[in-house]
Here is the input.
Amino acid sequence: MSDRQMTLIAFLQAQNCSNFPASWRHPEAAQDFTSAAYYQRIGKTLEAAKIHLAFFDDRLAIPDIYGDDFRVTMREGIRAAKLDPMLCAMAMGLATERLGIGVTYSTTYYEPFHVARTFATLDSLTGGRAAWNVVTSLNQSEAVNFGRTEVLEHDLRYDRADEFIGVVRDHWRSWDDDALRMDRETGLFADPDGVRRLDHEGDWFRSRGPFTVPRSPQGEPILIQAGQSGRGKQFAAKWGDLTFVIYPNLEMGRRQYADFKSYLGSIGRDPDQTKVAPAVYAVIGESQAEAEDRYAAIQALAKPIDALVLLSEVLNFDFSTKGYDEAFSSEEMDGISGIQAFRDRVVTMSGRANPTVGDFVEFTRRGTLNEFPVFVGDAKSVADQMEEWFGTACDGFVLAASHVPGSYEDFTRMVVPELQRRGLFQTEYAGSTLRENLGLPALHV
Here is the structure.
């Protein structure tokens, strides 16, 4: 019996496929992703298994940088249809009672007051179960959708995001916990002394207040962040209650986990109060042979074009302009403005300062099931693999789906009971709020 238990998170998309872009091609994939029932079914499955949190990834554009055209994206269904994740999350939240509900929102294309009110409302309507996955946005197509001509430079996006989160949290904290009275006998609705104006004037934002939403049962939403290198790592360490990471393998995961936990301590944060969870896939069968057959069949759904389209999207570079074995110039490498952790990983793992297109495909594994570590086997084998990672490389896992809803149904039916038998995963929720269930303190004002 373990003294520590895993944090388990479902990685969702409000779109036609899961994180695995070929998932919609799977013969068992549900096709009603435009319906509320789709998200409600997933939420109920996850909650029945006591999964801590479901969070929705998002990008504010479809992939259209490859060939400067959206047609291949539409034809192949490469994340081709994207709904507003906040509304999908709300549908899921109202169909569940304990499952945490997280949504990705950008600090680049919204205003702090809007984000503060949206998430405070989600938090209140779900009884204190909301989480905000903070992203700075990286994609040129997102910029033009919002009337911008270019993406803000990498470090400046984080400078702006620091101020953005500070404004959001100050709005959340501008109401005292007991400011709302609703006392009919005295006629006092809210204590005026328990609500404050913000009057923020910074380098990037101005926001006056007062805020419009009272405090929720958990105080304020959980913050999720995915920065892994350089400025992004500093940002994640400063703000994140939960840090979402991508590790190419266990060895690198252990190094990065130890480094990040050490860094948290160096800036005065309790390393145990920030959960680190890598994205993984699990392909499960009743036997090892059945799982391996399933894995091979799922892998066969991916197409080379998936990788090239998605690499173009996250690196803001049109991969159709280079041959597969053609190296990037130093100038092109310096000009990559997307996810710098992807670029850095390819340079490190290829051993080349000027990798080729093929190196990017091989070492990011973008568009394939192997973009994240894959645990393949029967329930015992998958639990063994998760246990090997747990504690030395992570505090839990972000579970991506090879197809929906089957991946979540298989995992919750087979692997969760095995983890529970080992004492590695909860058999009941600790409380009613997400902070309680993650073992984090409520925040009071």
The chain has two domains: 7-287+371-437, 303-366. The longest helix spans residues 154-172.
